[in-house]
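Below is how a single chain appears once it has passed through the pipeline. First comes the sequence as given, then the structure the pipeline wrote out for it. We keep one example in the README because the format questions we get most often are answered faster by looking than by reading.
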Amino acid sequence: MWLFMAPSVLVMALVLFYPFFSAVYYSFFDYYLGSQAVSFVGFDNYTRLLGEERFWLTLGNTFFIVGVSVALQLVIGLALALALYSCTRGARLISLLNFLPHVVTPVVGGIFLKWVFVGRWGLLDATLIGFNIFPPDWLGDPNWARFTVIIADTWKFMPFLMLVLYAGLQSFDTALLEAAAIDGASAWQRLWYIILPMMKPLILFVVAIRTMDAFRFFDLIYVLTNGGPGTATETITLYTYQLAFRLLEVGRASALGILTLIVVAMMVAVMIWLMQRRGREAF
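Resulting structure:
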C-alpha cells in the first residue's frame, strides 16, 4: 500500500508540506528576498503585523468582500438552482451556459470585466451614457470599487454554488414536497421547512469551501484594481504579495500567511461545528 501511495505523498511533500514549513520557518526570521543576511527575530514579525493599521484594514476589507460576495453567491446560486430544478426542459443547457464564467480563468475574466467597468469608454459606461445616465467611477471610487470586485467575484464563482446546489436538489425525495403541497403548504413554506433543512449540510459545505477559496481572492482584484484606489480593495492575500514580491520582506510575508491560515482555520472550524449539529437551529 505504501509503495502505491509514495508518488502522491512525494508530490504533496513538494508542493504542500515544504512550502508550508518553509513559511513557518521564515516567519521567525528577518529575511529579505535575495539577501544573505538572515537574523532570528522570534515573534517580532507577528507582533509588528498585529500592531499595523494596514493589517487590520486589509483584514477588514477581506472579511467584508468575502462575506458579501459569498452571501450574494449563495442567494443567487440557490435561486438559480431552484429555478433549474423546476424546469421541465432545457435545464442542462441553461446550467451549462451559467457555468461558462467559472470555466474562464480568473485573469482572462478580470481583463474582460475591466473592459466592461473601466471609466468613460468601458462597455457599461458607454451603454449608460447612451441612455443619458452618468455612471460612477466603478474602479476609481473606493465604495464603487468594492462593489465592482464583489460583482466580479460573484460572476466568476457563483456558477460553482449553483451547480452543487442543483445536484443536491436532484437527490431529493419528491414525495415530501408532494405531500406538503397536498397539505396546503405554500412554495415559501416548502422552501423554508423542507428544502432548506434537507440541504443544510450541503449549503454549509459549499459555503465553507467557497469561503476558504474567497480568502485567497487575488487574481480578479489584481487585474481590476490592484488593491486600489489606495487600499480600498486590498485583501490579505494582495498585502502578502506586496510584502513578499514588491518590498521583498519574505519574513513578514510568511508571518502574514500563517496569520491568514489561522484565521481561515478558525472560520472553517466553526463551519464544521455547524455541519455537525442537527436540527433547524443550525441555521
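The first helix runs from residue 2 to 26.

See the next section for the split statistics.
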